[in-house]
Structure to design on (370 residues):
């Protein structure tokens, strides 16, 4: 049997742990149609919390209802790519590229009369209107998903928002779902880029309750015929910290190391260790690589605490002012690496980052300190 867990970024896991409620409004929107609040949604959360998975799941739900789906990432040229994708769907629905039409032929083959084809829509708004008008006649619609919107070109986002708002006013079946890092998305929407997008449903994805993780792991192992004891399920669930990507990683590596269909204490430990190493080599390493040397130094100072860190303490360890530390607090919040943990407190957004930093402190100190 194939491994039931999918620890690949953005992959659609067979079991969507603790996330079904987050899609309820979207499901309702597919039924209710134009103007439904669930059809305009922004998912936010730190790296690896499952934002892209939510977009993928929503896309699958839309396709099941016969909707056309266009999946995009917020990189340069977003608007032109959307326009091109919509044109492809228009042509698939019969709006091909007709040439000059012959409408009449005079006697003996002379005096051919021709007619030019209708002018085709050119811009995103015109093409979207044409496609949606056709889809509405079939009781379906168009879903556009855009990932990583914190990196989007402001002009592109403004134009996309204006077009979607127009389509909604025209009572056309359009859905727009987006995802990005919380603080950066909040700042983006506060920059007067689009007041329309501020009215979107905002779903902040956090960790999954450990009880849900336990139930999901136990059910998946049982359904695939692999024996795992309740105490082992508890240890595996605790190792995930409720972090969606780590749920898939731990499940994958523990299931893979089961001995003749049974999870042993030794294979459980080996699986959890392998999952943590993989988390470090993918999510944690990538998150740190995107940061400046001072950003990483601040994280190293945070790793000295057993729990949330006080900004004042971090400033003291840096030998700088609280204002100076505050600048890097904001940068790290924008990057989705840390979260606010209360008044004057910050904490790591990703499980095991504290331990990872401690393990690699010497190497980081030698190569990354300012």
């Amino acid at each position: 049997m194939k491994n039931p867990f999918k620890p690949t970024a953005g992959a659609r896991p067979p079991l969507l742990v603790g996330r079904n409620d987050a899609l309820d409004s979207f499901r309702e929107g597919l039924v209710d149609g134009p103007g439904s609040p669930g059809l305009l949604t922004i998912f936010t959360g730190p790296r690896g919390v499952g934002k892209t998975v939510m977009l993928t799941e929503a896309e699958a739900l839309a396709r099941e209802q016969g909707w056309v789906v266009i999946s995009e990432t917020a990189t340069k040229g977003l608007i032109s790519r959307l326009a091109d994708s919509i044109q492809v769907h228009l042509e698939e629905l019969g709006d091909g590229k007709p040439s000059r039409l012959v409408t009449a032929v005079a006697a003996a083959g002379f005096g051919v009369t021709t007619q030019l084809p209708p002018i085709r829509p050119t811009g995103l708004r015109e093409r979207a209107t044409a496609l949606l008008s056709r889809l509405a006649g079939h009781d379906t619609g168009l879903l556009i998903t855009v990932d990583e919107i914190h990196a989007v070109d402001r002009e592109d986002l403004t134009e996309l928002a204006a077009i979607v708002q127009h389509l909604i006013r025209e009572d056309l079946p359009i859905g727009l779902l987006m995802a990005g890092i919380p603080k950066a998305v909040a700042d983006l929407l506060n920059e007067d880029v689009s007041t329309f997008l501020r009215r979107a449903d905002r779903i902040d994805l956090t960790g999954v309750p450990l009880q849900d993780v336990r139930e999901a792991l136990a059910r998946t192992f049982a359904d695939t015929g692999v024996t795992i004891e309740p105490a082992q399920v508890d240890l595996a669930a605790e190792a995930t910290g409720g972090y969606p990507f780590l749920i898939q990683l731990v499940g994958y590596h523990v299931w893979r190391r089961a001995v003749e269909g049974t999870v042993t204490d030794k294979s459980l430990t080996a699986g959890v260790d392998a999952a943590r190493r993989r988390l470090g080599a993918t999510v944690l390493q990538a998150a740190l690589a995107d940061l400046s040397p001072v950003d990483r130094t601040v994280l190293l100072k945070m790793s000295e605490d057993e729990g949330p860190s006080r900004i004042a303490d971090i400033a003291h360890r840096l030998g700088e002012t609280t204002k100076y530390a505050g600048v890097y607090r904001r940068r790290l919040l924008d990057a989705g690496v840390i979260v606010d943990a209360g008044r004057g407190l910050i904490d790591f957004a990703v499980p095991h980052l504290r331990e990872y930093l401690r393990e690699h402190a010497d190497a980081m100190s030698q190569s990354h300190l300012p």
Remarks:
- The mean pLDDT is 86.
- The beta strands are 40-44, 68-73, 101-104, 113-115, 142-147, 174-180, 201-204, 309-310, 338-340, 345-348.
- The CA atoms of residues 104 and 113 lie 5 Å apart.
- The two ends are 51 Å apart (CA to CA).
